[in-house]
Amino acid sequence: MLMFTRKIIGDVYLHQSKSLNFHMIQLMHMNADQLKEKQKEMMARSLPKQKPIKGVKQILIVASGKGGVGKSTTSVNLAVALKNTESNKTVGLLDADVFGPSIPLMMNLHEAPMLNKDNLMEPLVNYGVKCMSMGFLIDKKSSVVWRGLMVMSALDRMIRQVSWDPLDYLIIDTPPGTGDTHLSLIQNIPVAGSILVTTPQKAAVDVTRRGASMFHKVNVPIVGIVSNMTNVICPNCNTKVPLAKDTTDSLAKELKTKILCKIPLEESIMDCCDNGKPIVLSAPNSETAKSYKELAHAVSTFLKNRLIHSD
Fold first, then answer.
1. CA–CA separation, 61 vs 306, rounded Å?
2. What's residue 139's pLDDT?
3. Name one Pfam family in it (predicted).
4. Number of independent structural domains in the chain
């Protein structure tokens, strides 16, 4: 299986694409036992020390226990809100969901990245945010059917072979759940903190609790919880109607963290996502946009305090 099925502009880019394809084909021809041993070898080798991403000061992971809770929407609006409120800072957004990339649509970016003179991919930029996603490297209609080790290799290349420098904040939108992607990120790069996104329903809160357990085990600070879709705002009278019993406050207390913001469900948020226009810019006075700006302020404060204490 070829990694890059999309036409790449430039012979140098094509050369790198073929190199990655060859690496992936080698992995595909390994049997299950060989892959398991290779994965153990890679993870063990990277476990003792984390290597910073060149030029990237602080890295934040956005995670969720299950899909469909608004994690990618939160990642996009957080990144754009950070850039919008701190124009002197450089912000990046990495779509680490190799199997289901959604950042290209939400950030209205659909081109293939180019290579610079150092043979590094240049991130695509919109709304002042540098972005990288597997969605830029494969055809829209193509599916990615890879084993965990292949995903780790592709992810490493999106981290290490991208010209992020300089970058103050890198927001990483991770796939739902906890697995190879999360472990690979945490073991290989210094992560400043994590944000847990959930909805108020018990099913979502329960799996968020399990996700928090992973971050605790690997000593990654939990910045806080984003409670998404806490209520519906009527487009006619602006009345807030709760969607479910909100159990996120008790979860935050249990995890000894805090609720960073509670985000309502508005009709406009879906249109903004589908049209690639983050709501913090397209509807800045909406309740949802205000919540995301509140989140950006909390994250900025956390990261600045972390820098002060690390000096």
1. 15
2. 79
3. ParA
4. 1
In a domain, 42, yes or no: no
For residue 1, tell me if it sits in a domain.
no
Q: What is the pLDDT of residue 48?
A: 45
Residue 205, domain CATH = 3.40.50.300
**How high is the pLDDT of residue 78?**
98
Which residues in the chain come in under a pLDDT of 50? Answer: 1-15, 17-18, 46, 48
Q: What is the pLDDT of residue 41?
A: 61
Q: Which pLDDT does position 197 carry in this prediction?
A: 98
